[in-house]
Design a protein that fits this description.
This protein is α+β, with helices and mostly antiparallel strands. The chain has two domains: 12-125, no CATH class; 127-158, no CATH class. The protein is 46% helix and 18% strand. The chain is built from six helices and five strands, in the order H-E-E-E-H-E-E-H-H-H-H. The strands form two sheets. Strands 1-2-3 form a three-stranded antiparallel beta sheet, with helices on one face. A two-stranded antiparallel sheet has the order 4-5. Strand 2 and strand 3 (49-56) form a beta hairpin. The longest helix has 31 residues, at 80-110. The chain is globular, with a radius of gyration of 19 Å.
Length: 158
């Protein structure tokens, strides 16, 4: 099965702008965006919650962009422009996927399928700057490994 929007021609900038427009439409009152090598970040405020999505970006030096499989079965280097085009395509795909995720979550809330906090729980920014997901996921992983529920997941002590 192929990736969502794997052949999209929609630019990263247009996808980012669509996300911002969607957030405004659903009541967000703040939005920011940034990037650094290997990731992009969007953050917004809606329903009195601060939300952050970190979007892992493809590595420009990954062999899947810099090389191609020749008919002989061997990997051959791509031209610089072809490598850049392949990387750019993968980057556009990621932004389209994030756009889809944000729209779907907001629409699920709007329709009453779920609550805002349920949809965005892992991405809610806590007072210390981490997200709920960053705090809780290591405990969930450990619980599955050792079969013991940590107090954090059990609730308050009785």
């Amino acid at each position: 099965m192929g990736q969502y929007a794997q052949n999209t021609e929609v630019s990263q900038e247009k996808s980012r702008a669509e996300i911002e427009t969607t957030l405004r439409r659903y009541g967000a009152d703040a939005f920011s965006y940034g990037w650094e090598e290997g990731r992009a970040v969007i953050a917004f405020r809606a329903n009195d919650r601060h939300i952050r999505f970190v979007l892992p970006m493809p590595d420009r030096n990954d062999e899947k962009f810099t090389h191609y499989r020749h008919s002989s079965g061997r990997m051959k280097p791509r031209a610089e422009s072809a490598a850049y085009s392949a990387w750019e395509q993968a980057s556009r795909q990621r932004w389209r996927a994030l756009n889809l995720v944000v729209k779907a979550k907001l629409e699920a809330v709007e329709c009453g399928i779920s609550e805002f906090e349920e949809e965005f729980l892992a991405h809610i920014i806590l007072p210390d700057g981490t997200t709920v997901g960053e705090q809780i996921l290591p405990h969930v992983q450990k619980a599955y490994i050792d079969g013991k529920m940590p107090r954090l997941l059990l609730g308050p002590a009785k």
